[in-house]
Amino acid sequence: MYEHSNTQIELSGVYTAYMGAEYPVIRDLSLEINRGDFVIVGGPNGAGKTTLLETINGMLHITHGSVKIFGMDVSTKGIEIRKKTGYVIQSFAFDPLTPFTVKNVVMIGRYGLLGCFNKPREEDYKAVEESIKMLGLEDMADKPIGTLSGGQQQKVLIAQNLAKKPDILLLDEPFSNLDLCTREFVSDVLNDISSKGCTVIMVSHAFDALPDKDLRIVVMDDGSLKLNETCHGSKVENIIRNMSAVT
Ligand SMILES: Nc1ncnc2c1ncn2[C@@H]1O[C@H](COP(=O)(O)OP(=O)(O)OP(=O)(O)O)[C@@H](O)[C@H]1O
User: Fold this and answer.
1) Structural domain contains residue 106
2) Rounded-to-integer distance, Cα 29 and Cα 42, Å
3) Number of folded domains in the chain?
4) Engineered SS bond to 13: which of 46, 65, 86, 134, CB 3.0-4.6 Å?
5) Cα–Cα–Cα angle for 147, 153, 157, nearest 5°?
6) Which residues lie across from 73 on neighbouring strands?
7) Is ligand 1 within 6 A of the CB of residue 25?
8) 176 by DSSP, 3-state: which?
């Protein structure tokens, strides 16, 4: 277990490219993120926000520089790193006929730790139950996932990643399908896990339900880091707006 340093994510002079692409999307990016930080990643469409999450999660080719997570190089220890990292991808929708229940889908979050061919243990069922409860999904736990609304499915995907009990949680526009009340609810859940030491890195275009505390704000534009500072959750929207006016 990586316990010896407060810096959990270190990117130094990183360039990352998609397979077959001529030019890197992320260019010369250096960034350090500490354990338990709550980071909001903003910036215009196409700025490289998703690419940043995929770089941290070791899913892309790093052409220059280095990415270290928990002190390990993401290029060689990606599998180990991803066991401790949750990633809620952008706008995923299940087919309406998907037969798996909410519980089944949340259990998938345990399989990285459990191994694909092993039967869930008591602790796996317990983690699933806890995550379902955290996201307030108890009433729909036995329903087929495809019968849920887009916002409810989004909450299930967050629960799936929480069942992993991650040290880092990456979220790509988790608020996109959620009404204001649900955004506030999910924001409280994320704030709670971050206060307990999980590092939360969230790409978002919605800033009206952010935690009432100091957050890290990282703004990307054209594959580069434009801003990296700490500010109160209530100030994030203004900062992003002002930056958009400048760029
Ligand atoms: N699979 C891919 N292959 C090649 N290029 C890609 C791929 N995915 C994204 N890109 C390119 O990388 C750049 C950054 O995309 P990215 O998805 O990271 O932006 P973003 O800031 O998350 O945008 P949005 O706010 O619209 O979701 C874009 O120019 C995009 O065309």
Assistant:
1) yes
2) 15
3) 1
4) 65
5) 140
6) 68
7) yes
8) coil
List, for the chain, all residue ranges whose pLDDT scores fall below the cut of 50: 1-4
Q: Is 48 in the pocket of ligand 1 (CB under 6 A)?
A: yes
List the structure tokens of 218: 């990282």
Q: Which domain holds residue 111?
A: 95-165
In a domain, 240, yes or no: no
pLDDT score, position 54: 95
* pLDDT tens string 162-202: 999 999 999 999 998 899 999 999 999 999 999 999 999 99
Distance CA 58, CA 76 (A): 9
**Which residue from 14, 15, 19, 25 has its CB within 8 A of the most atoms of ligand 1, so it is best to mutate?**
25
**CA–CA dist 157, 87 (Å, integer):** 9
Interface pTM, i.e. ipTM: 0.96
Residue nearest to atom 2 of ligand 1 (CA): 18
Convert the pLDDT of each residue in 76-90 to its tens digit.
999 999 999 999 998
Q: How close are the terminal C-alpha atoms of the chain, in Å?
A: 42
Note whether 205 and 40 are within 8 A (CB): no
